[in-house]
Specification:
With about 280 residues, the protein is α+β, with helices and mostly antiparallel strands. It has helices spanning about 1-20, 145-150, 150-175, 180-185, 200-210, and strands at about 35, 40, 45-50, 60-65, 70, 75, 80-95, 100, 105-110, 115-120, 125-130, 135-140, 185-195, 200, 215-230, 230-245, 250-265, 265-275. Strand 3 (about 45-50) and strand 4 form a beta hairpin.
Length: about 280
């Protein structure tokens, strides 16, 4: 098993290195032959880079998808990895949201998990598929109307991400201003706040802010990322926080996790937790 693992890692590294050394408009491998439309729609070209044998029980195939081309739902009993080498495409597992993949991404298709992948309606995509040596199990086609609506879904997700980022920024301003009225509207009734010195609920957090027990004087936000999952959004901040705690002014770097849930059309902050990063002066 160790030799197999080393060989598998080595081929992945070699393929990625080869991709980086080639110019963007210079394909490493031939385009291959156009595949018959049996388990996909649209135009797809395949080039077999390496077939499985007794020593290496996986194959490597380059797939070139014209815009709008998509595979049916399917499973790989022995798993698969996709190395995106050109363009932009989609990847989705059963029960999960569609992901956008682009050049440089690596997608791990777990063994036995139903999924599909494709180009987008407006862009082609090329990838190297490293597949375990077990026959693919083909399932139902991807519905055309669902495929064509994905671009809009992704656009909506981007809008939600911006909405959450803007709301988080306002929250830091309200906390600095001790604006408990706005915060009372924002905080979920069952919200939880986790600090270095303990955790508590909404009522105590508002009381601490209003009394100045913790004054969030200034949050200097360094990095922000948002992951939207239906009616839940998780925002991560890397911040440097200037705060007054017990009458003492302290500055610390934190990773702050914020969880928002949407109720009755409004986003509510349901959890806020602080994790102190290494190199801080003192904690809360």
């Amino acid at each position: 098993m160790m030799k197999k693992y080393i060989s598998y890692s080595a081929i992945l590294f070699s393929l990625l290195l080869c991709r980086q050394l080639n110019a963007q408009d210079d394909s490493t491998f031939p385009k291959g032959e156009k595949a018959p439309n049996v388990h996909h729609t649209g135009d797809v070209w395949l080039y077999h880079v390496s077939d499985a044998d007794k020593t290496f029980d996986y194959s490597i195939v380059q797939a070139v998808f014209a815009k709008g081309a998509k595979l049916d739902w399917h499973k790989h009993p022995a798993g698969q990895q996709l190395i995106i080498t050109e363009g932009i495409g989609f990847y989705q597992e059963r029960g999960k949201q569609v992901q956008t993949v682009k050049k440089g991404d690596v997608v791990h298709c777990a063994a036995g998990v139903a999924h599909w992948h494709a180009a987008t309606p407006n862009t082609g995509v090329t990838y190297l598929a490293i597949t375990g040596n077990e026959p693919t199990e083909w399932l139902e086609p991807v519905k055309e109307e669902e495929f064509n609506s994905i671009e809009l879904t992704i656009s909506n997700t981007k809008n939600v991400e911006k909405e959450i980022m803007d709301l988080s920024k306002k929250k830091w301003d309200w906390m600095a201003d001790k604006n408990v009225g706005q915060l009372d509207d924002l905080f979920h009734e069952q919200s939880v706040f986790v600090h270095m010195g303990g955790s508590w609920g909404k009522e105590k957090e508002l009381s601490v802010i209003e009394s100045g027990g913790i004054w969030y004087k200034k949050a200097d936000v360094k990095e922000v990322s948002v992951n939207v999952m239906g009616n839940t959004a998780i925002l991560l901040n890397n911040i440097t926080l200037l705060a007054v705690v017990g009458g003492n002014e302290v500055t610390n770097p934190f990773e702050v996790t914020e969880v928002y849930v949407k109720e009755d059309g409004n986003w509510k902050l349901s959890a806020l937790s602080f994790t102190k990063l290494l190199g801080g002066d003192s904690g809360k």
